[in-house]
């Protein structure tokens, strides 16, 4: 990218709990501003507690608010926009009718129109029996519940009328790019296509024949392009960013968190946000085995320039702590009291810090794991002396880190040449107990990034021409 010393790149991350935005000075590589907003978008799913859905209007309002709170004079200098977000999920809309552009104060913003909810990566509606009834993908990645194609198959088999209302689909971040650029057909990067299932990362093509043969609505599959490509230009001025600004195809959030934080090939990245991932980069030329082992906790996801990342992607990260806080908050309310959630986080973390060790053992897999969906959470070694808030918080944080470590142990990282661990994600940066547990278990030097890592990675990927 040509820079004149005043060019800024906007990076956005549409996460499961919050949206983040950073402004990166393309010439110096400095972050000049950043913002985040909680989305609070979760809605009841028609599938009951197994379903995990989010209100798209709520997410986009948080995004508009987050971006427009950046300084106006800086937004006017934005030359490119990079977008990342929560992978695997799917939402639906109608071509050319997915949003309307409105005035909000003196700014132009877009509002979703007649879209579905976003069915997220946390969605559990596809049982093992249901997944076993689907055609075998031709991909090195196993299919799991919460993956876009599995969710579309679920609608096809259980609510075919639902799909009749739509002719376009994508992840939430693909939707954002499609709306910003007014795309006729959504585009999807190989990062997000791989996260939907039924995608072959070697040929970079959907398993069209297999899908079509099972009656899958293949017209809903976005056009796939390489990560790092430009998807189009902003069709309107947005939050003060000028019309015509280039917008990159949406990227995966975990690839972007690695891109912003890992500087050496011998780095591993541990990201804890709503979910958690431990990942390192595979050497150039690495190609995964053609077919997956469903019991293997480490998967290989496409990165940039035909590289792969080995990743242990846990479904149990900050969401486990958030569930603990919700449980406490509900109990407190039932007892007739009221403590704000932010105060609960602070007090719980303070209590955990005062308890350095515990014999209490919490296996925290409230949400199962993709390689063992039926293994739920458990607590053991409970003694009367180990019931304080400090013991429980310490054991919970220890459990989250140990669970991830059991999926990708230090020994395997060392054998792969890892020498340093980079910690990222706001659940980690805001929780010292979690950081202490990371430092106890991993025998590497550890460096912490900032909580806008994926948004920063999305911006950095747009500075570099892939
Ligand atoms: N006040 C807080 N203090 C510490 N941790 C928090 C606080 N609020 C939320 N969290 C943690 O941060 C997680 C969400 O992180 P975030 O980076 O916003 O997620 P995402 O990138 O998935 O949108 C929550 O699941 C929770 O564990
Ligand atoms: O499952 C994977 C990768 O396979 C995930 O880790 C991937 O990064 C997803 O986007 C996350 O689960 C959601 O990200 P976040 O909102 O927790 O940051």
From TrEMBL:
Top-level lineage group: Eukaryota
Subcellular location, record wording: Cytoplasm
Coiled coil location: none
InterPro entries found in the cross-reference section: ATPase_NBD, FGGY_N
Gene3D superfamilies linked to this entry: 3.30.420.40
UniProt KW keywords: ATP-binding, Cytoplasm, Kinase, Nucleotide-binding, Transferase
Positions of the Carbohydrate kinase FGGY N-terminal domain: 9-257
Main location: cytoplasm
Cellular compartments per GO CC: cytosol
GO molecular function terms attached to this record: ATP binding; sedoheptulokinase activity
Known catalytic reactions: sedoheptulose + ATP = D-sedoheptulose 7-phosphate + ADP + H(+)
Enzyme Commission code(s) on record: 2.7.1.14
Record family assignment: Belongs to the FGGY kinase family.
Function: Acts as a modulator of macrophage activation through control of glucose metabolism.
Annotated protein name in UniProt: Sedoheptulokinase
Source organism (scientific name): Xenopus laevis (African clawed frog)
């Amino acid at each position: 990218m040509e820079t004149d010393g005043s060019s800024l790149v906007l990076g956005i991350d549409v996460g499961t709990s919050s949206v983040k935005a950073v402004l990166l000075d393309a010439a110096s590589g400095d972050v000049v501003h950043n913002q985040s907003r909680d989305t609070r978008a979760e809605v009841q799913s028609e599938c009951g507690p197994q379903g995990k859905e989010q209100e798209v209007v709520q997410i986009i309002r948080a995004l508009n608010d987050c971006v427009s709170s950046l300084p106006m004079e800086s937004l006017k200098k934005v030359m490119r926009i990079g977008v990342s977000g929560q992978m695997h999920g799917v939402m639906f809309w109608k071509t050319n009718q997915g949003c309307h552009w409105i005035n909000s104060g003196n700014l132009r913003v877009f509002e979703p129109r007649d879209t579905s909810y976003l069915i997220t990566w946390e969605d559990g509606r596809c049982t093992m029996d249901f997944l076993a009834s689907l055609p075998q993908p031709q991909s090195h990645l196993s299919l799991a519940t919460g993956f876009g194609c599995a969710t579309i198959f679920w609608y096809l088999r259980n609510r075919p009328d639902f799909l009749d209302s739509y002719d376009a689909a994508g992840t939430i971040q693909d939707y954002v790019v499609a709306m910003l650029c007014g795309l006729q057909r959504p585009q999807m990067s190989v990062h997000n296509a791989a996260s939907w299932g039924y995608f072959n990362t070697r040929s970079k093509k959907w398993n069209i024949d297999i899908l079509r043969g099972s009656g899958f609505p293949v017209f809903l599959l976005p056009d796939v392009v390489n990560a790092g490509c430009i998807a189009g230009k902003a069709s309107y001025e947005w939050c003060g960013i000028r019309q015509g600004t280039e917008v990159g195809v949406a990227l995966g959030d975990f690839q972007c968190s690695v891109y912003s934080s890992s500087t050496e090939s011998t780095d591993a990245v541990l990201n804890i946000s709503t979910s958690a991932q431990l990942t390192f980069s595979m050497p150039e030329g690495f190609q995964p085995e053609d077919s997956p082992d469903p019991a293997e906790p480490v998967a290989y996801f496409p990165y940039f320039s035909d590289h792969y990342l080995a990743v242990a992607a846990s479904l149990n990260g900050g969401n486990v702590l958030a569930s603990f806080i919700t449980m406490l908050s509900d109990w407190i309310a039932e007892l007739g009291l009221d403590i704000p959630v932010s105060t609960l986080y602070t007090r719980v973390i303070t209590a955990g810090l005062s308890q350095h060790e515990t014999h209490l053992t919490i296996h925290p897999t409230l949400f199962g794991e993709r390689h063992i969906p039926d293994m739920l959470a458990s607590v053991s070694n409970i003694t009367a002396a180990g019931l304080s808030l400090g013991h429980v918080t310490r054991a919970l944080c220890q459990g989250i880190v140990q669970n991830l470590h059991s999926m990708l142990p230090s020994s395997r990282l060392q054998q792969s040449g890892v020498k340093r661990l980079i910690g990222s994600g706001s659940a980690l940066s805001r929780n010292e107990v979690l950081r202490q547990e990371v430092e106890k278990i991993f025998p590497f030097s550890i460096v912490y990034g900032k909580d806008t890592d994926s948004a920063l990675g999305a911006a950095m990927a747009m500075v570099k021409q892939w």
